[in-house]
Amino acid sequence: xxxxxxxxxxxxxxxxxxxxxxxxxxxxxxxxxxxxxxxxxxxxxxxxxxxxxxxxxxxxxxxxxxxxxxxxxxxxxxxxxxxxxxxxxxxxxxxxxxxxxxxxxxxxxxxxxxxxxxxxxxxxxxxxxxxxxxxxxxxxxxxxxxxxxxxxxxx
Length: 155
What we know:
Order of helices and strands: HEEEHHHHH
Strand content: 5-15%
Strand order of the largest sheet: 1-2-3
Structural class: mainly alpha
Number of helices: 6
Largest sheet: 3 strands, antiparallel
């Protein structure tokens, strides 16, 4: 849940390999790997982690090969479906509204970023949405420090 609250899709999180976590940068790299592909080219990105998410992932990664699935139980074909079902059991204990689900965490992150007046281009970068404007395609995008500055206001 802490990872989905970063704005990552559940399929992106479940398909992470240990090597997708950068300990030095305290971030995760959302990129194609041996477990899963990505929805779009714009989905490839680096997302800084909150202290809580970093600590949880560090424990999972510790001592494991970079090519190993970070989430052993869900790092497989259709693992995101199994993870969603497991997470929804917990969510339903607290939220009865049937329209709310795991994907709602991405919507919540988008709303939180709007509320702190994060620039639209930055919101798209965090959520992995493509930006079709020509000017947005120039340069390398936002630095990890800039993304962390804005995201940390929502943690």
